[in-house]
Structures are given as structure tokens and as C-alpha cells.
């Protein structure tokens, strides 16, 4: 699938910005995902393989606009909807 | 290339301590290794390619997920390593995929197969499933074929039977839910405090002073950190994988980032800027992030120490010595 996530070799994203001594979770979003993840794994909602496909299905514009952990949240929601745990 | 967003690990906590061995054979690594290797290699099918084979990657964009990234499609390469049979994680009945090629470079000119505008002398080494590859030359014209028997790794699938997935309201689940909050918080703390580059630093430091330890990565595919008694624990349950059920060999094709050794990746590693540039210009993208890529120092034995813990130097490190 030629998705937006497959960006190896693309041009135009600019210079790599690096921050020294950044915290492990720079934002609350990351910490929240770190809390979610063990629960989802125990509930067998989340497995490595299942985690891949929904994130590939994120729309390109949304993908580029969202942060790393926002994409995780989106994927988790998709998985939960797919499993019938929650309804959209 | 791995899917970048699939890099969430199974939340390992790293502990460095001597491993208790219950298996008497484990006390004799020579026996265990020999018999173990034989036992598992008969489990998988014979590999289609061998080291030194010239191959061409498939040129296809299948619907759904693929681990053949766009930049690697339809490219020539040489097999530099056959990993053996690996099982994909997450499948109840593990799917057997075979082997991986690990080369994507022009075999003769040592130019990247990504075009003349890509950074020179930075061949891309990539783990690919065998089905992504086609032979580039007729069978008779194989170049420098080694009759090296592929070793096979089998990986136990994640056991789901121990979980009560069916009855969410059962007492054991409610009890489980009560413990969850503490565990979830613990997983955050584990990543903020216990897991991080300091664990990798311990491995490197010990490798410098302990020759036996240093040789381990050269002997086994799992690298020093596994045999070096870095234990994985699941902070969620505080329970280790049952013996023999630890996911093994997955990092080659599914989990590429050594969380257990260097913690969660920094933000720039996950950024679009780095992800897009790392393939074609690994050194440039590294330099533009204001860090330098030192040359890998050599150990006396000829094995190389990881010079840069961050994988921006990964492809550089694997390249022929310059």
C-alpha cells in the first residue's frame, strides 16, 4: 500500500530538529498512551500485528497533522471500534 | 522497512542480573546451542536464497500493509544474511515467513540503489521477507554462493489462553481491573526511570572489559544483550514469559528499535524529517540534527562496538569499512 506512512526517501520535510535532554514523554499525550497500552495489551485488543494496519489507513492529511502519540490514540480508537468494545 | 508506528514494544523492563538456569543443558551452552539449532532448523522450510545471491525486490504495492517499503521496490541487492524462519507476532497460529535478505545496494559500485543523488557509500541493509524477493540471475549463474545452512528460529506465539477475554465481568477480571491502575502508572514510570540508554551503556561498558561477553553477539543472532542476561519483564504483570515462550528474533522484521537497550526513541527519531531522510542520506540527516556520526571503533577481535546508540548510524555501521 502506498500510504503516507511510507515516507522513506521522500523529500521536502526539512531539517531534523533535535532537542537535547528532552523528557521521555514530552507531552501528556505520550504519558496517556503509555498508560493505555498495557491495558489494551491485556485485553488482547492490541497486538503488534493488529496495530499496524489501522495506522496505515489514516488519511494522509490527518496523518501529517497529528503528532506521534496522536496517531497512537487514533489507532487505539480504531482497534477498539473494530473489536466492538466501543461504538463510534 | 519496519512500520514506524508499530514499534511499541511489549513493555519490557530491563534488568541486568545473573540468570538462573533450570535447564541443565543451559549450563552447557555448546550443547544447547548445537542441539537447539538443529531442533529448530528442521521446523522451517529451506530458504530460497543463500548468502551472496543476487536478488531483485518485488515491484508491487499490495492493498493492505506490507513490509516492503516504497523505496525498496524493484531494487537490486545481494543477500548478506539469511535469518531463518521467523514467526509473525500477534497471530494465533504463527505464520511462518522465511528468511530475510539484508542488502539493497549496487553489488559492484557500492552505490546505493536509490539513485545517484542519494548519499554515496551508504548502502541500505534491509530485512525483507523472502516472498518480497526474486532471483536476479538464473540459478546457474549464482555469484559466490555459500552453502550455508540456514538456521531457523521459531517463536512461540503470544498465549491468549491464560487471559479471560470472554467474560469481562468475571471476578478475576474485576480483580485484574483493580490492579491495572497501579500497573499502568508503573509502565510510565518504568520508561521514565528504569528503561533508557543507561542500560545500553552498561552493555557497552561490560563489552569493553569482558572478552567473553563481547564475543557473544558474534556467536548468536540475538546479540549480546539477550545472552548477556538482560531480562525482559512485563511490568504489567510482573511476570516473565514462560521459558521458551519469549518472543525471539522479532526485532529483525517487526521490532527494529532496541527499546530495552536505549529506551523510547527521541522525538526527532519519530519525526517526518528524519524518517524521510534517513534512507537516502543517513549521514546528512544525522549531521543536520546537530550530532556527529563518529566512526565505529574496532575491538581488538575485529568486532565493532556500536559507536552511536541511535540508529541514525545503523546503515553506516553495517557498511563496508571506509
Detailed description of the structure:
The complex is a heterodimer of chains A (88) and B (322). Chain A has 88 residues and is mostly helical. Chain A contains four helices and no strands. Chain B is 26% helix and 11% strand. Chain B contains nine helices and nine strands. A three-stranded antiparallel beta sheet of chain B has the order 3-2-8, with no helix packed on it. Chain B has a two-stranded antiparallel sheet with strand order 1-9. In chain B, strand 4 (85-87) and strand 5 form a beta hairpin. In chain B, helix 3 packs across helix 4 (211-219). The radius of gyration of chain B is 21 Å and the shape is extended. Chain B starts with 12 loop residues before the first strand and ends with a helix. Residues 1-42, 89-100, 105-110, 139-173, 221-255 and 289-322 of chain B have low confidence and may be disordered.
Give the number of helices of chain A: 4
Helical residue percent of chain A? 40-55%
Separation, N- and C-terminal Cα atoms of chain B = 25 Å
Strand content of chain A: under 5%
SSE class of chain A: mainly alpha
What's the main sheet of chain A like? none
What percent of residues of chain B are in strands?
A: 5-15%
Helix content of chain B: 25-40%
Instruction: Give the oligomer, counting copies of the same chain as homo and different chains as hetero.
Output: heterodimer
Low-confidence parts of chain B, pLDDT < 50 over ≥5 residues? 1-42, 89-100, 105-110, 139-173, 221-255, 289-322
Gyration radius of chain A, in Å = 15 Å
How far the N terminus sits from the C terminus of chain A, by CA atoms, comes to 26 Å
Q: Helices and strands of chain A, in N-to-C order? A: HHHH
